[in-house]
Amino acid sequence: MIVNLVSEGGTAGPFTEPRSDLGIGYDRVDQYGVNGDFNNPIPTPYQKLIMQSGCIGFPKGREWDGTKEDAIRLHVSGLAQLKLELESGNDVVDEVEGVVY
Predict the structure, then answer these.
(1) How far apart, in whole angstroms, are the C-alpha atoms of residue 53 and residue 83?
(2) pLDDT tens over the chain, length 101 residues
(3) Can you point out the beta strands (E) in 7-80?
(4) How many angstroms separate the Cα of 25 from the Cα of each of 6, 50, 64, 77, 90?
(5) What pLDDT score was predicted for residue 23?
(6) CA distance 45 to 31
(7) Cross-strand partners of 37
(8) pLDDT of residue 18
């Protein structure tokens, strides 16, 4: 599955609701793995997860194998990529977005 958001707790999900008819910008993701449930996704605000929950966003998506372990792996790699982008002075969101604490 192609996902656009992962958490350090092992949840992941794809964008589900475009903000405009052009498909530019998304407001929601279907988050799989909440409370260990990988069968029933929870619709969740994307920006809230990025800004308040420490999730890492992949606007162009990443391949996910559907497991908690792979979501954690993606979160770690996304966080490392985000730190590199911030250190380089690149403030244009292209591949990864989030907040570094």
Answers:
(1) 17
(2) 999 999 999 999 999 977 777 766 778 999 999 999 999 999 999 988 998 889 999 999 999 999 999 999 999 999 999 998 888 877 666 789 988 77
(3) 12-13, 15-18, 26-31, 42-45, 56-63
(4) 17, 14, 21, 23, 20
(5) 63
(6) 10
(7) 34
(8) 77
CA distances from 26 to 30, 70, 93 (A): 12, 23, 14
d(C-alpha 72, C-alpha 3), whole Å: 13
CA-to-CA separations, 55 to 7, 21, 22, 44, 84, in angstroms, rounded: 4, 26, 25, 12, 17
Closest CA to 2 of 11, 13, 16, 10: 13
Instruction: Tally the residues of the chain.
Output: 101
